[in-house]
Prior knowledge:
Low-confidence stretches: none
Structural class: mainly alpha
Order of helices and strands: HHH
Helix content: 40-55%
Strand content: under 5%
Radius of gyration: 16 Å
Number of strands: 0
Distance between the termini: 20 Å
Number of helices: 3
Amino acid sequence: MKFKDMPKSPVFPLGYRWGFEKRKGVYESEVTALVRKMLEDKDIREDQRFAWERWRTEDRLTKKP
């Protein structure tokens, strides 16, 4: 698979703070809550989906040593 149209990764201002809250009533680490909040952002979600698809289709995974 060739990636001709690579999207630009989202850039946030220096010092940007994500307003995240941990779920109530269940255990959730701060890191998990932060990632969950970040993935609510459409640009980040699309960027991560593209990165995942690119990683999954890399030639190194299909070539035998």
